[in-house]
Specification:
Number of domains: 2
Helix content: 55-70%
Strand order of the largest sheet: 4-3-5-7-6
Distance between the termini: 74 Å
Number of strands: 7
Number of helices: 27
Shape: globular
Structural class: mainly alpha
Length: 586
Protein backbone atom coordinates (compact mmCIF):
# COMPACT_ATOMS: atom_id res chain seq x y z
CA UNK A 1 0.00 0.00 0.00
CA UNK A 2 2.83 2.40 0.88
CA UNK A 3 4.50 1.65 -2.43
CA UNK A 4 1.26 2.24 -4.33
CA UNK A 5 0.66 5.55 -2.49
CA UNK A 6 4.17 6.61 -3.42
CA UNK A 7 4.28 5.53 -7.06
CA UNK A 8 0.66 6.45 -7.87
CA UNK A 9 0.60 9.75 -5.99
CA UNK A 10 -0.95 11.67 -8.89
CA UNK A 11 -3.77 9.17 -9.35
CA UNK A 12 -4.53 9.18 -5.62
CA UNK A 13 -4.45 12.98 -5.55
CA UNK A 14 -6.95 13.11 -8.39
CA UNK A 15 -9.14 10.49 -6.70
CA UNK A 16 -9.18 12.68 -3.59
CA UNK A 17 -10.10 15.63 -5.81
CA UNK A 18 -12.98 13.69 -7.38
CA UNK A 19 -14.33 12.78 -3.94
CA UNK A 20 -14.11 16.38 -2.74
CA UNK A 21 -15.66 17.62 -5.99
CA UNK A 22 -18.55 15.16 -5.65
CA UNK A 23 -19.12 16.28 -2.07
CA UNK A 24 -19.16 19.96 -3.07
CA UNK A 25 -21.62 19.32 -5.91
CA UNK A 26 -23.93 17.38 -3.60
CA UNK A 27 -23.62 19.97 -0.82
CA UNK A 28 -24.10 22.95 -3.11
CA UNK A 29 -26.76 21.48 -5.36
CA UNK A 30 -29.41 24.05 -4.32
CA UNK A 31 -27.01 26.81 -5.39
CA UNK A 32 -26.50 25.08 -8.75
CA UNK A 33 -30.23 24.56 -9.19
CA UNK A 34 -31.00 28.24 -8.54
CA UNK A 35 -27.96 29.56 -10.45
CA UNK A 36 -26.87 31.27 -7.22
CA UNK A 37 -24.01 33.34 -8.58
CA UNK A 38 -23.71 35.59 -5.55
CA UNK A 39 -20.61 37.55 -6.54
CA UNK A 40 -20.87 40.26 -9.19
CA UNK A 41 -17.78 38.91 -10.98
CA UNK A 42 -19.30 35.42 -11.27
CA UNK A 43 -22.38 36.91 -12.92
CA UNK A 44 -20.27 38.99 -15.27
CA UNK A 45 -18.15 35.97 -16.19
CA UNK A 46 -21.27 34.04 -17.19
CA UNK A 47 -22.48 37.01 -19.23
CA UNK A 48 -19.11 37.12 -20.96
CA UNK A 49 -19.37 33.42 -21.84
CA UNK A 50 -22.96 33.83 -23.04
CA UNK A 51 -21.89 36.67 -25.32
CA UNK A 52 -19.11 34.52 -26.77
CA UNK A 53 -21.47 31.61 -27.43
CA UNK A 54 -23.95 34.00 -29.05
CA UNK A 55 -21.36 35.18 -31.55
CA UNK A 56 -19.65 38.17 -29.94
CA UNK A 57 -16.08 38.62 -31.18
CA UNK A 58 -13.24 36.80 -29.44
CA UNK A 59 -11.38 40.02 -28.73
CA UNK A 60 -14.49 42.08 -27.97
CA UNK A 61 -15.12 41.96 -24.21
CA UNK A 62 -17.64 44.79 -24.11
CA UNK A 63 -20.75 43.95 -22.10
CA UNK A 64 -23.45 45.61 -24.19
CA UNK A 65 -26.22 45.04 -21.66
CA UNK A 66 -24.58 47.39 -19.19
CA UNK A 67 -24.75 51.09 -20.06
CA UNK A 68 -26.34 50.51 -23.48
CA UNK A 69 -25.94 51.25 -26.29
CA UNK A 70 -22.16 51.81 -26.01
CA UNK A 71 -21.72 49.03 -23.46
CA UNK A 72 -19.47 48.45 -20.49
CA UNK A 73 -15.82 47.51 -20.96
CA UNK A 74 -14.48 44.53 -18.97
CA UNK A 75 -10.71 44.26 -18.52
CA UNK A 76 -10.55 40.44 -18.32
CA UNK A 77 -9.36 37.89 -20.87
CA UNK A 78 -11.16 34.97 -22.49
CA UNK A 79 -8.80 32.33 -21.07
CA UNK A 80 -11.10 31.53 -18.14
CA UNK A 81 -14.14 31.59 -20.46
CA UNK A 82 -12.91 28.52 -22.35
CA UNK A 83 -13.63 25.72 -19.82
CA UNK A 84 -17.03 27.23 -18.98
CA UNK A 85 -17.99 27.56 -22.63
CA UNK A 86 -16.73 24.05 -23.35
CA UNK A 87 -18.82 22.58 -20.54
CA UNK A 88 -21.93 24.44 -21.71
CA UNK A 89 -21.49 23.13 -25.25
CA UNK A 90 -20.96 19.60 -23.90
CA UNK A 91 -24.03 19.59 -21.66
CA UNK A 92 -26.18 21.13 -24.40
CA UNK A 93 -25.95 17.78 -26.17
CA UNK A 94 -27.93 16.17 -23.35
CA UNK A 95 -30.13 18.87 -21.83
CA UNK A 96 -31.53 22.39 -22.24
CA UNK A 97 -29.36 25.47 -22.53
CA UNK A 98 -30.50 26.69 -19.09
CA UNK A 99 -29.47 23.44 -17.43
CA UNK A 100 -26.25 23.30 -19.44
CA UNK A 101 -25.31 26.68 -17.98
CA UNK A 102 -26.20 25.64 -14.44
CA UNK A 103 -24.15 22.44 -14.68
CA UNK A 104 -21.23 24.24 -16.32
CA UNK A 105 -20.95 26.93 -13.66
CA UNK A 106 -21.33 24.25 -10.99
CA UNK A 107 -18.49 22.10 -12.30
CA UNK A 108 -16.08 24.64 -13.84
CA UNK A 109 -14.71 26.03 -10.52
CA UNK A 110 -13.74 22.51 -9.45
CA UNK A 111 -11.35 22.06 -12.39
CA UNK A 112 -8.59 24.37 -11.09
CA UNK A 113 -8.89 22.66 -7.69
CA UNK A 114 -7.49 19.51 -9.31
CA UNK A 115 -4.42 21.50 -10.39
CA UNK A 116 -4.06 22.91 -6.87
CA UNK A 117 -4.18 19.49 -5.23
CA UNK A 118 -1.81 17.87 -7.73
CA UNK A 119 0.67 20.78 -7.51
CA UNK A 120 0.74 20.88 -3.72
CA UNK A 121 1.02 17.08 -3.56
CA UNK A 122 4.04 17.31 -5.86
CA UNK A 123 5.56 20.07 -3.72
CA UNK A 124 5.25 18.30 -0.36
CA UNK A 125 6.57 15.06 -1.87
CA UNK A 126 9.71 16.92 -2.89
CA UNK A 127 10.11 18.98 0.29
CA UNK A 128 8.62 16.94 3.15
CA UNK A 129 8.32 13.23 2.35
CA UNK A 130 7.00 11.07 -0.49
CA UNK A 131 3.99 9.99 1.59
CA UNK A 132 3.17 13.40 3.08
CA UNK A 133 0.80 14.46 0.31
CA UNK A 134 -2.40 12.88 1.81
CA UNK A 135 -1.82 15.05 4.87
CA UNK A 136 -1.43 18.10 2.63
CA UNK A 137 -4.72 17.28 0.89
CA UNK A 138 -6.47 17.10 4.29
CA UNK A 139 -5.02 20.48 5.21
CA UNK A 140 -6.28 21.96 1.93
CA UNK A 141 -9.77 20.58 2.53
CA UNK A 142 -10.07 21.56 6.20
CA UNK A 143 -7.54 24.32 6.83
CA UNK A 144 -7.89 26.62 3.83
CA UNK A 145 -11.19 28.09 4.94
CA UNK A 146 -10.99 31.08 2.59
CA UNK A 147 -9.05 29.56 -0.29
CA UNK A 148 -11.45 26.64 -0.68
CA UNK A 149 -14.30 29.11 -1.27
CA UNK A 150 -12.63 30.09 -4.56
CA UNK A 151 -13.35 26.58 -5.92
CA UNK A 152 -16.91 26.01 -4.80
CA UNK A 153 -19.60 25.42 -7.43
CA UNK A 154 -20.84 28.69 -8.98
CA UNK A 155 -17.53 30.51 -8.16
CA UNK A 156 -16.58 30.94 -11.80
CA UNK A 157 -14.54 34.09 -11.34
CA UNK A 158 -10.91 33.90 -12.47
CA UNK A 159 -9.35 33.67 -9.00
CA UNK A 160 -9.51 29.87 -8.86
CA UNK A 161 -7.38 29.50 -11.96
CA UNK A 162 -4.93 32.14 -10.77
CA UNK A 163 -4.52 30.24 -7.50
CA UNK A 164 -4.00 27.03 -9.48
CA UNK A 165 -1.21 28.62 -11.52
CA UNK A 166 0.31 30.02 -8.32
CA UNK A 167 0.45 26.51 -6.84
CA UNK A 168 2.04 25.31 -10.08
CA UNK A 169 4.66 28.02 -9.67
CA UNK A 170 5.47 26.77 -6.18
CA UNK A 171 5.69 23.22 -7.53
CA UNK A 172 8.22 24.48 -10.04
CA UNK A 173 10.25 26.12 -7.28
CA UNK A 174 10.30 22.79 -5.43
CA UNK A 175 11.22 20.74 -8.52
CA UNK A 176 14.80 19.49 -8.69
CA UNK A 177 14.69 18.94 -12.46
CA UNK A 178 15.92 22.32 -13.53
CA UNK A 179 14.72 22.43 -17.11
CA UNK A 180 11.21 21.32 -16.16
CA UNK A 181 11.18 23.64 -13.16
CA UNK A 182 12.07 26.68 -15.24
CA UNK A 183 9.35 25.87 -17.77
CA UNK A 184 6.69 25.35 -15.08
CA UNK A 185 7.51 28.61 -13.29
CA UNK A 186 7.69 30.65 -16.50
CA UNK A 187 4.56 29.25 -18.14
CA UNK A 188 2.43 29.33 -14.99
CA UNK A 189 3.43 32.95 -14.39
CA UNK A 190 2.60 33.83 -18.00
CA UNK A 191 -0.80 32.10 -17.77
CA UNK A 192 -1.61 33.92 -14.54
CA UNK A 193 -0.73 37.28 -16.09
CA UNK A 194 -2.83 36.45 -19.13
CA UNK A 195 -5.84 36.07 -16.82
CA UNK A 196 -5.18 39.24 -14.82
CA UNK A 197 -2.65 41.16 -12.75
CA UNK A 198 -3.85 40.09 -9.30
CA UNK A 199 -0.92 37.66 -8.96
CA UNK A 200 1.67 40.04 -10.42
CA UNK A 201 3.47 40.45 -7.04
CA UNK A 202 3.79 36.65 -6.73
CA UNK A 203 5.02 36.36 -10.32
CA UNK A 204 7.66 39.00 -9.59
CA UNK A 205 8.62 37.18 -6.40
CA UNK A 206 8.97 33.89 -8.30
CA UNK A 207 11.25 35.57 -10.82
CA UNK A 208 13.34 37.07 -8.04
CA UNK A 209 13.69 33.64 -6.39
CA UNK A 210 14.78 32.03 -9.66
CA UNK A 211 17.40 34.76 -10.07
CA UNK A 212 18.56 34.39 -6.45
CA UNK A 213 18.97 30.65 -6.95
CA UNK A 214 21.20 31.31 -9.93
CA UNK A 215 23.16 33.90 -7.99
CA UNK A 216 23.73 31.39 -5.18
CA UNK A 217 24.37 28.38 -7.43
CA UNK A 218 25.80 28.89 -10.92
CA UNK A 219 24.60 25.43 -11.95
CA UNK A 220 21.01 26.73 -11.84
CA UNK A 221 21.69 28.48 -15.15
CA UNK A 222 19.52 26.00 -17.11
CA UNK A 223 16.52 26.81 -14.94
CA UNK A 224 17.13 30.55 -15.42
CA UNK A 225 17.40 30.22 -19.20
CA UNK A 226 14.23 28.17 -19.55
CA UNK A 227 12.33 30.41 -17.14
CA UNK A 228 13.36 33.53 -19.05
CA UNK A 229 12.31 32.09 -22.41
CA UNK A 230 9.00 30.63 -21.23
CA UNK A 231 8.06 33.77 -19.29
CA UNK A 232 8.68 36.06 -22.26
CA UNK A 233 7.30 33.66 -24.87
CA UNK A 234 4.30 32.58 -22.77
CA UNK A 235 3.35 36.16 -22.01
CA UNK A 236 3.62 37.11 -25.68
CA UNK A 237 1.41 34.16 -26.66
CA UNK A 238 -1.06 35.04 -23.91
CA UNK A 239 -1.28 38.61 -25.15
CA UNK A 240 -1.66 37.57 -28.78
CA UNK A 241 -4.31 34.98 -28.00
CA UNK A 242 -6.37 36.61 -25.29
CA UNK A 243 -5.82 40.38 -25.02
CA UNK A 244 -9.04 42.19 -25.94
CA UNK A 245 -9.24 45.14 -28.30
CA UNK A 246 -9.48 47.44 -25.26
CA UNK A 247 -6.32 45.89 -23.81
CA UNK A 248 -4.29 46.93 -26.82
CA UNK A 249 -4.04 50.40 -25.25
CA UNK A 250 -1.30 51.35 -22.79
CA UNK A 251 -3.40 50.58 -19.72
CA UNK A 252 -2.05 49.48 -16.37
CA UNK A 253 -4.74 47.11 -15.07
CA UNK A 254 -4.34 44.04 -17.31
CA UNK A 255 -1.94 42.32 -19.69
CA UNK A 256 -1.60 45.24 -22.08
CA UNK A 257 1.44 46.35 -24.13
CA UNK A 258 2.77 47.84 -20.86
CA UNK A 259 3.26 44.52 -19.10
CA UNK A 260 3.95 42.63 -22.31
CA UNK A 261 6.98 44.86 -22.85
CA UNK A 262 8.04 44.50 -19.21
CA UNK A 263 7.87 40.70 -19.29
CA UNK A 264 9.57 40.33 -22.67
CA UNK A 265 12.38 42.71 -21.68
CA UNK A 266 12.74 41.01 -18.29
CA UNK A 267 12.93 37.60 -19.96
CA UNK A 268 15.49 38.86 -22.46
CA UNK A 269 17.71 40.37 -19.75
CA UNK A 270 17.55 37.21 -17.63
CA UNK A 271 18.41 35.09 -20.67
CA UNK A 272 21.41 37.30 -21.44
CA UNK A 273 22.58 36.96 -17.83
CA UNK A 274 22.25 33.19 -18.13
CA UNK A 275 24.27 33.18 -21.38
CA UNK A 276 27.01 35.17 -19.67
CA UNK A 277 26.85 33.13 -16.44
CA UNK A 278 29.94 34.60 -14.69
CA UNK A 279 31.78 32.34 -12.29
CA UNK A 280 31.98 34.68 -9.28
CA UNK A 281 28.87 34.91 -7.11
CA UNK A 282 29.47 38.60 -6.46
CA UNK A 283 29.56 39.30 -10.19
CA UNK A 284 26.29 37.44 -10.70
CA UNK A 285 24.70 39.43 -7.88
CA UNK A 286 25.90 42.76 -9.28
CA UNK A 287 24.72 41.85 -12.78
CA UNK A 288 21.27 40.84 -11.49
CA UNK A 289 20.96 44.08 -9.53
CA UNK A 290 21.88 46.11 -12.60
CA UNK A 291 19.31 44.22 -14.68
CA UNK A 292 16.64 44.74 -12.02
CA UNK A 293 17.46 48.44 -11.76
CA UNK A 294 17.31 48.77 -15.55
CA UNK A 295 13.84 47.19 -15.62
CA UNK A 296 12.63 49.41 -12.78
CA UNK A 297 14.03 52.64 -14.23
CA UNK A 298 12.78 51.76 -17.69
CA UNK A 299 9.28 51.14 -16.30
CA UNK A 300 9.28 54.51 -14.52
CA UNK A 301 10.45 56.38 -17.61
CA UNK A 302 8.33 54.54 -20.17
CA UNK A 303 5.11 54.09 -18.23
CA UNK A 304 4.78 56.87 -15.66
CA UNK A 305 0.99 56.52 -15.82
CA UNK A 306 1.34 53.13 -14.10
CA UNK A 307 3.19 54.36 -11.01
CA UNK A 308 -0.04 55.00 -9.12
CA UNK A 309 -3.06 52.78 -8.74
CA UNK A 310 -3.27 50.36 -11.69
CA UNK A 311 -7.00 51.03 -12.00
CA UNK A 312 -6.34 54.66 -12.94
CA UNK A 313 -9.60 55.88 -11.42
CA UNK A 314 -10.42 59.48 -10.56
CA UNK A 315 -9.95 60.67 -6.96
CA UNK A 316 -13.74 61.01 -6.61
CA UNK A 317 -14.39 57.45 -7.74
CA UNK A 318 -11.68 56.17 -5.42
CA UNK A 319 -13.22 58.04 -2.49
CA UNK A 320 -16.82 57.08 -3.21
CA UNK A 321 -16.27 53.48 -4.29
CA UNK A 322 -12.89 51.83 -4.76
CA UNK A 323 -11.39 52.76 -1.38
CA UNK A 324 -14.38 51.14 0.31
CA UNK A 325 -14.08 47.70 -1.29
CA UNK A 326 -13.61 45.41 1.71
CA UNK A 327 -11.23 42.93 0.10
CA UNK A 328 -8.86 45.79 -0.80
CA UNK A 329 -8.35 46.68 2.87
CA UNK A 330 -5.55 45.21 5.05
CA UNK A 331 -6.33 42.29 7.30
CA UNK A 332 -6.04 44.37 10.48
CA UNK A 333 -8.86 46.62 9.24
CA UNK A 334 -11.31 43.71 9.38
CA UNK A 335 -13.18 42.33 12.41
CA UNK A 336 -11.39 39.58 14.33
CA UNK A 337 -14.08 37.12 13.30
CA UNK A 338 -13.02 37.68 9.69
CA UNK A 339 -9.28 38.19 10.16
CA UNK A 340 -8.41 35.30 12.48
CA UNK A 341 -9.60 32.40 10.28
CA UNK A 342 -7.74 33.92 7.33
CA UNK A 343 -4.48 34.46 9.20
CA UNK A 344 -4.16 31.21 11.19
CA UNK A 345 -3.05 28.91 8.37
CA UNK A 346 -0.52 31.37 6.84
CA UNK A 347 1.11 31.89 10.25
CA UNK A 348 1.26 28.14 10.91
CA UNK A 349 2.67 27.55 7.44
CA UNK A 350 5.29 30.25 7.89
CA UNK A 351 6.42 28.75 11.20
CA UNK A 352 6.60 25.30 9.62
CA UNK A 353 8.50 26.57 6.57
CA UNK A 354 11.06 28.38 8.74
CA UNK A 355 11.60 25.31 10.94
CA UNK A 356 11.91 23.07 7.87
CA UNK A 357 14.36 25.49 6.21
CA UNK A 358 16.58 25.59 9.29
CA UNK A 359 16.47 21.81 9.73
CA UNK A 360 17.21 21.23 6.04
CA UNK A 361 20.19 23.59 6.14
CA UNK A 362 21.62 22.01 9.30
CA UNK A 363 21.12 18.49 7.99
CA UNK A 364 22.13 18.77 4.34
CA UNK A 365 23.37 22.32 3.81
CA UNK A 366 20.47 22.49 1.36
CA UNK A 367 18.45 25.57 0.38
CA UNK A 368 15.57 23.72 -1.30
CA UNK A 369 13.11 24.86 1.38
CA UNK A 370 14.12 28.52 1.30
CA UNK A 371 12.20 29.51 -1.90
CA UNK A 372 8.94 28.17 -0.45
CA UNK A 373 9.65 29.82 2.90
CA UNK A 374 10.29 33.13 1.14
CA UNK A 375 7.06 32.76 -0.83
CA UNK A 376 5.10 31.98 2.35
CA UNK A 377 6.57 34.98 4.17
CA UNK A 378 5.83 37.19 1.17
CA UNK A 379 2.19 36.05 1.14
CA UNK A 380 1.85 36.76 4.87
CA UNK A 381 3.25 40.25 4.34
CA UNK A 382 0.74 40.91 1.54
CA UNK A 383 -2.09 40.33 4.03
CA UNK A 384 -0.97 43.56 5.67
CA UNK A 385 -1.63 45.27 2.33
CA UNK A 386 -4.89 43.67 1.21
CA UNK A 387 -6.99 40.89 2.70
CA UNK A 388 -7.66 39.57 -0.82
CA UNK A 389 -4.24 37.94 -0.48
CA UNK A 390 -5.80 35.52 2.03
CA UNK A 391 -6.62 32.61 -0.34
CA UNK A 392 -3.12 32.64 -1.85
CA UNK A 393 -1.51 32.93 1.60
CA UNK A 394 -3.45 29.91 2.86
CA UNK A 395 -2.52 27.69 -0.08
CA UNK A 396 1.12 28.76 0.01
CA UNK A 397 1.16 27.84 3.70
CA UNK A 398 0.23 24.19 3.08
CA UNK A 399 3.82 22.90 2.49
CA UNK A 400 5.05 24.53 5.71
CA UNK A 401 2.03 23.36 7.70
CA UNK A 402 2.52 19.83 6.32
CA UNK A 403 6.18 19.89 7.35
CA UNK A 404 5.21 20.99 10.86
CA UNK A 405 2.57 18.26 11.10
CA UNK A 406 5.03 15.71 9.73
CA UNK A 407 7.33 16.50 12.67
CA UNK A 408 4.73 16.72 15.43
CA UNK A 409 2.24 13.98 14.55
CA UNK A 410 4.75 11.06 14.31
CA UNK A 411 6.32 12.18 17.60
CA UNK A 412 2.93 12.04 19.31
CA UNK A 413 2.07 8.69 17.72
CA UNK A 414 5.25 7.20 19.20
CA UNK A 415 4.35 8.11 22.81
CA UNK A 416 3.70 5.29 25.26
CA UNK A 417 0.45 6.76 26.53
CA UNK A 418 -2.59 5.87 24.43
CA UNK A 419 -4.24 9.06 25.61
CA UNK A 420 -1.38 11.11 24.22
CA UNK A 421 -1.31 9.12 20.99
CA UNK A 422 -5.03 9.50 20.31
CA UNK A 423 -6.07 12.79 21.87
CA UNK A 424 -2.71 14.49 21.39
CA UNK A 425 -2.57 13.61 17.70
CA UNK A 426 -6.17 14.75 17.16
CA UNK A 427 -5.56 18.00 19.04
CA UNK A 428 -2.35 18.67 17.10
CA UNK A 429 -4.10 18.16 13.77
CA UNK A 430 -6.96 20.42 14.81
CA UNK A 431 -4.49 23.11 15.85
CA UNK A 432 -2.28 22.89 12.75
CA UNK A 433 -5.22 22.78 10.35
CA UNK A 434 -6.90 25.76 12.00
CA UNK A 435 -10.06 23.75 12.72
CA UNK A 436 -9.65 24.38 16.44
CA UNK A 437 -9.63 28.14 15.87
CA UNK A 438 -12.73 27.89 13.71
CA UNK A 439 -14.53 25.88 16.38
CA UNK A 440 -13.60 28.45 19.04
CA UNK A 441 -15.04 31.24 16.93
CA UNK A 442 -18.29 29.32 16.59
CA UNK A 443 -18.50 28.50 20.30
CA UNK A 444 -17.34 31.88 21.59
CA UNK A 445 -18.62 34.61 19.27
CA UNK A 446 -16.04 37.33 18.58
CA UNK A 447 -17.24 40.51 16.94
CA UNK A 448 -20.67 39.00 16.19
CA UNK A 449 -22.60 40.76 13.43
CA UNK A 450 -24.94 43.44 14.73
CA UNK A 451 -28.67 43.34 14.12
CA UNK A 452 -28.21 46.02 11.46
CA UNK A 453 -25.58 43.92 9.71
CA UNK A 454 -27.89 40.92 9.76
CA UNK A 455 -30.63 42.99 8.11
CA UNK A 456 -28.21 44.14 5.41
CA UNK A 457 -26.95 40.60 4.78
CA UNK A 458 -30.53 39.35 4.47
CA UNK A 459 -31.37 42.06 1.95
CA UNK A 460 -28.24 41.32 -0.08
CA UNK A 461 -29.19 37.64 -0.19
CA UNK A 462 -32.89 38.10 -1.03
CA UNK A 463 -32.27 40.66 -3.77
CA UNK A 464 -29.75 38.36 -5.48
CA UNK A 465 -31.99 35.27 -5.47
CA UNK A 466 -33.13 33.92 -8.82
CA UNK A 467 -36.85 33.55 -7.91
CA UNK A 468 -37.02 37.14 -6.65
CA UNK A 469 -35.24 38.59 -9.65
CA UNK A 470 -37.35 36.49 -12.03
CA UNK A 471 -40.36 38.48 -10.82
CA UNK A 472 -38.93 41.48 -12.70
CA UNK A 473 -39.37 39.59 -15.96
CA UNK A 474 -43.11 40.26 -15.70
CA UNK A 475 -42.25 43.82 -16.67
CA UNK A 476 -41.40 44.41 -20.36
CA UNK A 477 -37.66 44.52 -21.05
CA UNK A 478 -36.10 47.97 -20.68
CA UNK A 479 -33.10 49.82 -19.27
CA UNK A 480 -33.18 49.69 -15.48
CA UNK A 481 -31.60 52.25 -13.18
CA UNK A 482 -30.44 50.29 -10.13
CA UNK A 483 -27.56 49.91 -7.71
CA UNK A 484 -24.03 49.35 -9.05
CA UNK A 485 -23.63 46.02 -7.24
CA UNK A 486 -27.00 44.76 -8.48
CA UNK A 487 -26.34 45.52 -12.16
CA UNK A 488 -24.43 42.33 -13.13
CA UNK A 489 -26.88 40.05 -11.32
CA UNK A 490 -29.84 41.84 -12.88
CA UNK A 491 -28.68 41.38 -16.46
CA UNK A 492 -27.71 37.74 -15.79
CA UNK A 493 -31.09 36.68 -14.44
CA UNK A 494 -33.60 38.97 -16.21
CA UNK A 495 -34.23 40.33 -19.69
CA UNK A 496 -33.56 43.89 -18.53
CA UNK A 497 -30.43 45.97 -19.14
CA UNK A 498 -28.69 48.03 -16.44
CA UNK A 499 -26.48 51.09 -16.15
CA UNK A 500 -23.40 50.06 -14.17
CA UNK A 501 -21.45 47.29 -12.48
CA UNK A 502 -18.49 47.46 -10.06
CA UNK A 503 -15.73 47.61 -12.71
CA UNK A 504 -13.24 50.45 -12.59
CA UNK A 505 -12.85 51.04 -16.34
CA UNK A 506 -16.38 52.40 -16.38
CA UNK A 507 -15.95 54.99 -13.68
CA UNK A 508 -18.22 57.56 -15.31
CA UNK A 509 -21.23 55.24 -15.22
CA UNK A 510 -20.50 54.24 -11.61
CA UNK A 511 -20.25 57.88 -10.61
CA UNK A 512 -23.49 58.62 -12.43
CA UNK A 513 -25.30 56.06 -10.29
CA UNK A 514 -23.78 57.44 -7.08
CA UNK A 515 -24.53 61.02 -8.07
CA UNK A 516 -28.09 60.13 -9.00
CA UNK A 517 -28.89 58.39 -5.72
CA UNK A 518 -26.99 60.85 -3.53
CA UNK A 519 -27.98 64.05 -5.33
CA UNK A 520 -31.26 65.90 -5.72
CA UNK A 521 -34.39 64.34 -7.28
CA UNK A 522 -33.93 66.49 -10.39
CA UNK A 523 -30.31 65.35 -10.66
CA UNK A 524 -31.47 61.73 -10.56
CA UNK A 525 -34.04 62.37 -13.31
CA UNK A 526 -31.49 64.11 -15.51
CA UNK A 527 -28.95 61.27 -15.17
CA UNK A 528 -31.59 58.57 -15.68
CA UNK A 529 -32.83 60.27 -18.85
CA UNK A 530 -29.28 60.59 -20.15
CA UNK A 531 -28.87 56.82 -19.79
CA UNK A 532 -32.32 56.19 -21.37
CA UNK A 533 -33.46 54.39 -18.19
CA UNK A 534 -37.22 53.93 -17.94
CA UNK A 535 -37.41 51.78 -14.79
CA UNK A 536 -36.04 52.35 -11.29
CA UNK A 537 -35.38 49.26 -9.15
CA UNK A 538 -34.07 49.52 -5.59
CA UNK A 539 -33.33 46.94 -2.92
CA UNK A 540 -34.00 48.53 0.49
CA UNK A 541 -31.28 47.81 3.08
CA UNK A 542 -28.88 46.40 0.49
CA UNK A 543 -25.37 47.32 1.64
CA UNK A 544 -24.87 49.83 -1.18
CA UNK A 545 -28.00 51.75 -0.15
CA UNK A 546 -26.61 52.32 3.33
CA UNK A 547 -23.72 54.20 1.73
CA UNK A 548 -26.09 56.52 -0.10
CA UNK A 549 -28.05 57.31 3.03
CA UNK A 550 -25.02 57.73 5.28
CA UNK A 551 -23.16 60.02 2.90
CA UNK A 552 -26.09 62.03 1.65
CA UNK A 553 -28.85 62.39 4.23
CA UNK A 554 -31.73 64.16 2.52
CA UNK A 555 -30.48 63.07 -0.90
CA UNK A 556 -32.72 61.43 -3.50
CA UNK A 557 -32.33 57.87 -2.24
CA UNK A 558 -32.73 58.90 1.39
CA UNK A 559 -35.99 60.67 0.49
CA UNK A 560 -37.12 57.62 -1.48
CA UNK A 561 -36.33 55.33 1.46
CA UNK A 562 -38.45 57.54 3.73
CA UNK A 563 -41.43 57.05 1.41
CA UNK A 564 -41.46 60.39 -0.38
CA UNK A 565 -43.34 60.44 -3.71
CA UNK A 566 -42.09 62.10 -6.87
CA UNK A 567 -44.14 63.17 -9.87
CA UNK A 568 -41.72 61.54 -12.33
CA UNK A 569 -41.95 58.12 -10.60
CA UNK A 570 -44.97 55.83 -10.93
CA UNK A 571 -44.92 52.81 -8.54
CA UNK A 572 -45.02 49.37 -10.13
CA UNK A 573 -46.85 46.76 -8.07
CA UNK A 574 -44.67 43.74 -7.26
CA UNK A 575 -45.76 40.35 -5.86
CA UNK A 576 -46.25 40.17 -2.12
CA UNK A 577 -42.98 39.53 -0.32
CA UNK A 578 -40.79 40.95 -3.10
CA UNK A 579 -37.65 42.61 -1.74
CA UNK A 580 -37.68 45.18 -4.55
CA UNK A 581 -39.29 48.56 -4.91
CA UNK A 582 -39.97 49.43 -8.54
CA UNK A 583 -41.07 52.62 -10.33
CA UNK A 584 -41.57 53.70 -13.92
CA UNK A 585 -39.46 56.74 -14.76
CA UNK A 586 -41.55 59.24 -16.72
Amino acid sequence: MRRDLDESWLQWSLIAWLLIAAWFIWQRWPYIYWLALRDTDDNMRLMQVRALLHGQGWYDLTQYRLNPPQGFNIHWSRLVDLPIAGLILFFRMFTSDAWAQKLAVGIAPLLPLSVVMASISFTVRRLVAPLAYPLAILLIAFGCTVAILMFLPERIDHHGWQLAFLCLTVAGLADDRRLRAGAIIGLSSAASLTIGLEMLPYCAMAGAIVALRWIWDRDQVIQLKVYALTLAGGTALGFAGFASYANMAMRCDALTPVYLIVMVVSGALLFLLALWNPERRGTRLAAALVAGAAIGIGFVLAFPQCLGRPEGVSPELARLWLDNVREAKPIYAHPLRTAVPIAVMPLIGLIGAIIASIADWRRNRSVKWIPVALFTAFACALLLWQVRAGPAAQLLAIPGATALAWIILPWLLQRNSMLVRVLGTAAAFLAISGLFTGALLRWFPIDPPSKRTQIINRANSRCASLPRLAQLNRIPAQIVFTHVDLGPRLITTTHHDAIAGPYHRNGDAILDVHHAFMGTPQQFLSIAKRHHATLLVTCPNMSETTVYRARSPGGFYDQLAHGKHFAFLTPVKMPEGSPFRVWKIE
